[in-house]
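REQUEST
  id: r-88c1
  op: predict_structure
  target: Kynureninase
  payload:
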Amino acid sequence: MDRASAEALDCDDPLRHLRDRFELPDGVIYLDGNSLGPLPRGVEERVGRLVAQEWRDDLITSWNTHGWYDLPATVGAKLEPLLGAAPGTVTVGDSTSVALFKLLVAAARSRPGRGVVVTEPGNFPTDSYVVDGVARLLGLTVRWWSAPDTPDIHAVLDDDVAVVSLCHVDYRLGRMHDGATVTAAAHTAGAVMLWDLCHSAGAVDVDLAGWDADLAVGCGYKYLNGGPGAPAFVYVAPRLLDVVDQPITGWFGHAEPFALERSYRPAADVRRMLSGTTPVVGAAVLDAALDAFDGVSMVEVRRKSLAMSDLFLSLAAERLAAYGVVPEVPREHAARGSQVCLRLPGAYGFVQALIGRRVIGDFREPDLARFGFAPLYLRFTDVYDAVEHMEAVLARREHERPENVVRAAVT
Ligand SMILES: Cc1ncc(COP(=O)(O)O)c(C=O)c1O
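RESPONSE
  id: r-88c1
  status: 200
  body:
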């Protein structure tokens, strides 16, 4: 594979025009959109308007006149097609961790008499921490299921399982569960299925309705490009909308927040998942950012994501294997998300040396250099050039230089 072949792939790419929807710094190859997406065009203008007109000039009237009150629904409606979700099933508001807490409690409450939560040891840590916290709060037992060791989830399911809570795509190993199969297994056991879509939303053709999923959460700041600390989204299946019973019963989830009633009455729709005042700045940024997906087919996004990771894997085999670099991701498309980790000694220094060359990825313990493929703005030539830089770093041992091995707080 030479650079001309990568150029030909860019020429044939039906999504290539979408790169213009982003403000990418010159000369940067950004392979970390799975951690923090780049700035979409239109966001800066939206924030300027929000601050200088809506907040400064129109003050509190903006809740009505500039759609602040409706932002969770406005943003939810933009997310629904990306998630294969029916209208009126998605909202935004809290961090992923808080949203996960609310959904886990709601799920457990819907299965009284069952005492087990099934989850994975390979979870992103917050998922495991929140599962542990909810288990302690409600007196549940956590049953750990390791898909690589026990591929068939039925082995850990029985009629004591209240909730199965899983990350759709593993944040380190890029392994992806089959959403429909796992959901069906959970349902056969009578459990609620809760998906964390942080590493899928915006990069994988998620199909919540098709999978028959019950509940889901996901980050706004990764492939959805909603900016640092963007609010997370929450999905509730249509059949559960008027029964889901979440624990943080704040006024924004009330049927009539401004009736200011003494007692809590949940909203009859997905708004009941809200708790407190909408984080308006973050939600407005996410709202503007999602315009980058306007008219975009998630099937095309998925096709390009896989083509990019295929290209990366074949270039890595050709040019990096001699340096002891081992790619960590399933080779079958059906089991692969939108990122690839390279396992190598000195992975932290490797990532730092690449950042010095303006190729941005991130490091995950213990020895993984992680690279995400975001189909909206990445080109096949970016993938090609990135691997060329990787080979140069290894050939010159730049990853072993003292300035590259000093750990920063955020890796
Ligand atoms: C799978 C997964 N869940 C949750 C989170 C983060 O949650 P929060 O938005 O609460 O920081 C991450 C962050 O990387 C993640 O990868």
